[in-house]
Amino acid sequence: MNPEDVELTIEQKELLYLISRLTDHHNCPDTWVKETPLQALMFHAIRKGLFNDYDYAPISSSFLGQGRKFVNISKEGEDDLGDLRELGLLETIRLSSTKYDYITGYRPTTESAKQLSELPNEIKSSIDTLFDCPECNEPAFNLVIDVGSSSFFMKCKSCSYNEDIPLVEPEDVSYSTKAYFFKSLGKHRTIGEDNK
Ligand SMILES: [Zn+2]
């Protein structure tokens, strides 16, 4: 089927528009949006009531070259990224970095231009509101990533208001659970050996 004529779901339209906004040459110097910032914004959008059909869950994932962490990822969102790619509306690139492993970058294909131009205004404006500062209403609310502390937040360039995005689950919770598990397992084995 011609990618121009496919009927997309509301969520797929929201996702395509979000990616087009993030890779728009007029607003943004980057041609590709990397998967981690995209996941952060998808998670943020779900928490704001967008992507109605999406859910999220902490998934152990290789994270910005810092080993594995529990990151809140939307399975439905990942599926739609794959679907949009298969439909020829998104293209991907593997970007290498000196500091991190390979990461995937996304951008809309030229074939997506017709789909994007025909998007309903409500879909565009609901995604646009993500970038409006809740404090001063300026469209200057953008994602900031602090890699060192694995923290993600939206920050207003105009008034400096910021809002946390809890994409990465606190490490101490999963760590203490794991440590307790291995401790009891070790104890059990020692008892077993003593009985021999
Ligand atoms: Zn502001």
Features:
196 residues, three-stranded antiparallel β-sheet, 6 helices, disordered C terminus
Describe the overall structure:
By secondary structure, this protein is α+β, with helices and mostly antiparallel strands. The chain has one domain (10-131, 166-194). The protein has six helices and eight strands. A hairpin with a 4-residue loop joins strand 6 and strand 7 (151-156). Helix 1 crosses helix 3 (75-86) and helix 1 (10-22) crosses helix 5. The longest helix has 24 residues, at 171-194. The structure holds zinc ion. The site of zinc ion has 8 residues, from loops.
Task: Give a brief rundown of this model.
This protein is α+β, with helices and mostly antiparallel strands and 196 residues long. It has helices spanning 10-22, 35-47, 75-86, 113-117, 121-128, 171-194; strands at 33-34, 57-62, 68-73, 90-95, 103-108, 141-146, 151-156, 162-165.
Order of helices and strands: HEHEEHEEHHEEEH
Shape verdict: globular
Class by helix and strand content? alpha+beta
Biggest sheet strand line-up: 1-5-4
**Terminal Cα span:** 68 Å
What portion of the residues fall into strands of 2 or more residues?
A: 15-25%
Percent range of helical residues: 25-40%
The number of domains: 1
List the helices and strands and how they pair.
Layout (H helix, E strand, L loop, with lengths): L9 H13 L10 E2 H13 L9 E6 L5 E6 L1 H12 L3 E6 L7 E6 L4 H5 L3 H8 L12 E6 L4 E6 L5 E4 L5 H24 L2
Antiparallel strand pairs: 1-5, 2-3, 4-5, 6-7, 7-8
Helix pairs in contact: 1-3, 1-5
The chain binds zinc ion (ZN).
